[in-house]
Please model this.
Amino acid sequence: MSLLKLPILVSAMISSLIAVTPPRLPPNKEEQGRTIGGKKRVGFVERIVQSVVHVFRTVITSVLFLEIVASIAKSHPTNLMSRQVQAMLFFGRTEVAHNWISPQFLAGIALALSGAIIRMRCYRELGRLFTYELAIRDKHTLITSGPYSIVRHPSYTGMMMVSIGLTLAETSPGTWWTEAEVVRTAFGRIITIIWILIVSYSTRLCMRGPKEDVLLRKTFADEWEEYAKKVPYLYVPGIF
Model:
């Protein structure tokens, strides 16, 4: 089962990292100043967003990398180095069910990969207009194609799918995190707290959707109003 799980984990790690990595350089202060109220400085919320994204990226890399290392070690049980790695990662335990692919794991990975694909489609559709900071860029246009023809803020939908999907996958039976009972260690408790805060903040990011709508309505007026009539939902088609 180890070799089958490896490409799944590698795909999840790479796609998730792409999904939480800014595709473009941040807008300049003048562009960020074209927000509600016309403030020409980077706001506190934007600084928090940048910090959370960096921490999220670091945690994803660390946990999934260790998951991959554990899978490789488990696939070579007779190798001396593999046994040493297992002893370290599983805190001396040898009888563990690590590498079992559970339905919950597959569902979580599928959700995370789908969310990452949505994010990458948003990157492609918006191009240089996609930024993590709330801003109106030079020669800004209203994008209404691709994922933006289904909901008005699909990138936030994708981010939520990635964070929830990875949570489901890593807390499922058969993963290194679960079988090694990492949460019982000091390292595991710290990562758990950070992860809960990140997922909670990802949920809170949805609050930026209406703020973006106000800014876009102010900038594009009738064009935005027509778009909002055609695409009434912010994040989930037919629901919200």
Observations:
- The chain has a mean pLDDT of 85.
- The first helix runs from residue 2 to 19.
